[in-house]
Predict the structure.
Amino acid sequence: MSSLKNIRIGGVPEHFNLPWHLGMEHDHFKKHGVRLEWQTFKGGTGQMTKALRNDEVDVCILLTEGIVADIANGNPSKIIGPYINTPLIWGIHTGVNNSLERYGEIYDKRYAISRIGSGSHLMPMVDAFSKAKPLNEDQFVIIKNLDGALDSLAKNESDVFYWEKFTTKPYVDEGKLRRVGEYITPWPCFQIAASDKIIKEHPDALRAVLKSIYFITDQFMNSLDAVEQVASRYELELKDAEQWFFCTEWSTSSKVSKKMIQNVIFTLKEAGIIHHKPSFEDLVVDVMETSE
């Protein structure tokens, strides 16, 4: 019996990643010669880019803007395929006792962010740039994760918090957060990235991972009980899981849009998040092109 190649993979503990867990539970990756060792990153994209830099993981599922920015800033990794084709709907939140009332009032407030380089940091900057209201670095309060944000907002140590709308909705429903607005990412929200090291040493294993996950996402999108599975596993109301599922499209191909990447680069550069424009080839590699 041939040995399995271990791939260390990381992602956030959110409903987007259910196809990965279903694939592991049903040994789909093992059938294609790969054993996935899943690591959950509650700190989001900023925590995962650091893990890629430190060779603590081989592959991560990260926010598009976060991985583009970090590769541009020296992360020895590449995007190897898209994961979610649709934008992320960010909920914009404040504490229940905060005097903040309206979305338009947020731009001079204190922002809770999981860490520098995470989506909760970058997306407010992109949002503010689109409104011609640039933010200052001293407006950001690092809170590590969602639990940290709940605590910070409750104590009025921060005022504004961007996080995926459906993940935070149970806290809004419980009265632990107030949502004052929404912001839709101007590009597809999640990409699959791998370290340059694993790309060089085990491209065959990465091809197996991509072939497997794209088969699984295709099956998942056509599953009759997908909504019920999401609601049950992630403790969402059925109607919320349904709304989220039918505004989300998973990728079924490793083709990365060059124009999409150019859009991200332009916006990050204009918003002052990156200071040079990397090429498409600096950011993306097609590991499938050498597939037999």
Remarks:
- The first helix runs from residue 18 to 25.
